Please model this.
Amino acid sequence: SNQTLTKGTHTIKVGKGGDIAGNFTANNGRDSELGPYIAYGGSGGAGYSTTEPDFNITTNRFGSGGGGLGWNDNSSYIGYHNANERINQTNPSIQGGIANKGGRGYQDPVGGDSSTLLTGFLGGGGGGAGGMGQDAIPNDNTSYVGKAGNGGFGLDYSAVFGTNVGSNGWFAGGGGGAGASISGDIAGTGNNGGLGGGGNGNSSGTGLAGTNGTGGGGGGGGYANQIGGVGGSGIVIIKFKKIVNTEEIRAYYHSGGAENQSTYNLYVGPNTICDILIVAGGGAGGGRQGGGGGA
Model:
């Protein structure tokens, strides 16, 4: 808050949400920028892997981490799959912005029949700007009530920018992980679609997309062979504080086209004090019992 935009032309770039590459691979969201200030795109959630238990496609920089996968090709493996590593970052002035880790996925192929077995492959939730993604909750192999991880909650900026932007003023919620068939999994911190635009995981179908204009992560895809949801596009919001007792809010969105970033030029006359929010695109959700996308 209370940042100075100097006289002249400022370039704004708004990032697209992460998309799906191939069947189960989730891409990162794209960065958003205002001049030299950058918010990193959220990490894609991990999808089904034929290679290693902790597989996650993302190796470059990212915002909040994507959730860990719930199934790799080693059918005898039992235990947690690590999410993308990301040091929790709560200082918005640090380059890249606020971010949190994704939750771990869990794999346990023990089960008495096909319906109980399917609760043993559980993705972790994607990290949100306001909190870490939740680890999957394992089965106890008695009641078979394992659950995929919730997405981390986002941040509430409604007091600054109002409720007509974001998801009622909330931004950057993580996507929910997905299990298989009868596992329960949601996004955010309640069964409300996710605080900050995180998409729900879907254990019996395609993961739900993050909400555009929030940077929310996409939900994980479930059984059988379902893909994750795409991440929500980002947003850049500027509230101009004027000498007269009035204020003006301008919001810049991704166009919805194929470009990774939508670019705008903003001309500022005299130096102006502003409140500024830069939100990158959310990561896509992983497929086939995948983790949720990070915000």
